[in-house]
Structure formats: structure tokens, C-alpha cells
Amino acid sequence: MPLVRGPENIVPNFNDILNIQAVQLEDWNLMRLIPALPDIFTGMQWLAARRLLKNSMDCGICQNPCTLNRYAQGIDGFRWRCNDCNFAASVRQGSLPYLRL
Fold it and tell me: What is the pTM of this model?
């Protein structure tokens, strides 16, 4: 059976990723945020849209785009994987690279 490739981006539409000024204007608190994020993947999308989690990842070996795949052994249930050379990395690897509030 052929390997099913996952998406290359957590947030598929780059226009849905907020700039730093838009993030700074948001008004969230934990009591409103938790019900808005019903599952881990929705939470990952929320973080990636605010540049708190990498939206995509290039392979550390061959530099090709990795795909996001379910990974039961991972703490968040996902990992980046290069289908060309079998490189794999945690979704959390390289988090928080952009936002400096």
C-alpha cells in the first residue's frame, strides 16, 4: 500500500497567517481560548497562524518540504517527516522563532 502524504503546511492558506501587529491587537484569555480549540490539530493551527509554531518545515538532510503526519508516540500526536529520505522531527522543533512581543 502506498504511503499517504500529509500536508506540507499546518495552515494551508498563507494569507491566514497573521502579522505581528495583528497578533498584538488580539484580545484572548484562557477561558475564551480553550473552548475555541476543540482538538490538538486546531490548537496547532491557531499557534501556526500566530507564528508561534512553524507552519512548515524543510528536511534537515535534503532540504525538501516535510509533510505533517500523525505520530502516536509523540506528545502532541504529530511529527514532520521527509518522505524522500526518512528524516523526522518533532512538530515542536523550532517553535517560537518569529514572535517577539
Answer: 0.79
